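Propose amino acids for all 234 sites.
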């Protein structure tokens, strides 16, 4: 049977749930069955029991109160209902050793859910020259280089020490908790990928592979196929 992949969604200004179709298309292409999880969803434990894998998607900023900081002036729009649901889902999924894939905001929320922190705004939080991490090109096109850690699962998917990725963020992972490890960085040092060393498949990336998969990007396709394969019931 195809694994059931729960995909978190966003909330618009009218309180309506929405999700970019690229996420579901990427899961379908990789052999999974996507199910959209509305932001603010309750019954987390029951949902966790019914899905086979969890995809934490991109979106607005993460509330800094979740990692013990006050909001800085550069903080963008936040969605507390979504934060609460995704934090609970991430903790539940990791606790059950369920495959988890975090993308962009999902990369950050996974880190926070496991006890880490994020930079609220890299251009004020960090010193030195930084790349353009909120690209002006269409999201389907890669715009900067990422260096992949040798021996990581990501390296297996990429089959290269460096890959090109797209970039649509101004927040970034800061302190990384156990059992997560940094598995890729941008050339300016921004953390671009995390993997758990204690779970069968817990990964996150700062870029948007669901958009790059539209261009048949090999690393992106391998990433989704690996996630879906790990989510299949034995």
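Proposal:
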């Amino acid at each position: 049977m195809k694994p059931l992949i729960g995909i978190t969604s966003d909330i618009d200004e009218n309180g309506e749930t929405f999700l970019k179709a690229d996420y579901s298309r990427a899961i379908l292409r990789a052999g999974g069955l996507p199910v959209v999880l509305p932001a603010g969803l309750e019954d987390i434990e029951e949902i966790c029991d019914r899905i086979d894998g969890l995809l934490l998607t991109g979106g607005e900023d993460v509330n800094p109160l979740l990692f013990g900081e006050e909001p800085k002036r550069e903080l963008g729009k936040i969605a507390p209902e979504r934060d609460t649901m995704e934090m609970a889902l991430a903790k539940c999924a990791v606790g059950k050793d369920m495959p988890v894939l975090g993308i962009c905001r999902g990369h950050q929320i996974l880190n926070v859910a496991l006890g880490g922190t994020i930079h609220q705004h890299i251009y004020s939080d960090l010193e030195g020259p930084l790349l353009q991490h909120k690209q002006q090109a269409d999201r389907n096109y890669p715009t900067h280089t990422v260096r992949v850690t040798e021996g990581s699962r990501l390296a297996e998917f990429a089959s290269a020490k460096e890959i090109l990725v797209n970039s649509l963020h101004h927040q970034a992972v800061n302190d990384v908790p156990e059992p997560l490890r940094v598995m890729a960085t941008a050339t300016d040092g921004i953390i671009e990928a995390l993997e758990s060393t204690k779970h069968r498949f817990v990964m996150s990336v700062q870029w948007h592979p669901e958009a790059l998969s539209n261009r048949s990007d090999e690393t992106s396709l391998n990433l989704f196929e690996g996630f879906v394969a790990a989510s299949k019931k034995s």
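The longest strand covers residues 180-186. The first helix runs from residue 21 to 29.
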